[in-house]
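user: Kindly work through both lines:
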Amino acid sequence: MISLPPNSHIWIAAGTTDLRRGFTGLSALVQTTLQQDPFAGHVFVFRGRRGDLIKLLWFDGDGLCLFAKRLERGRFVWPRAENGTVSLTRAQLSMLLEGIDWRQPVRTAPPQLSV
């Protein structure tokens, strides 16, 4: 997992994206469609049409980083919205990258107060 600064946000670009795009195409998409600054240090997550490939765009202070992950089985869980953004926590991003449904994680046991 990448080590993100504490003030960075994680944004999912709702809908599907043409993942043939690279650094330039995805950063232009962040500026025009998402109305965000790709060089602000935030993470932007894009999913392809089939749902088994995602790309993350992140500016680490020195340059843009482009990460890609493809699931061999299954699909990445994605919001139903066709446009706009959805904000994620770091834990939700970790679940997303593992192919886990990050929208409603279920605890194995409820937390209890120990006295």
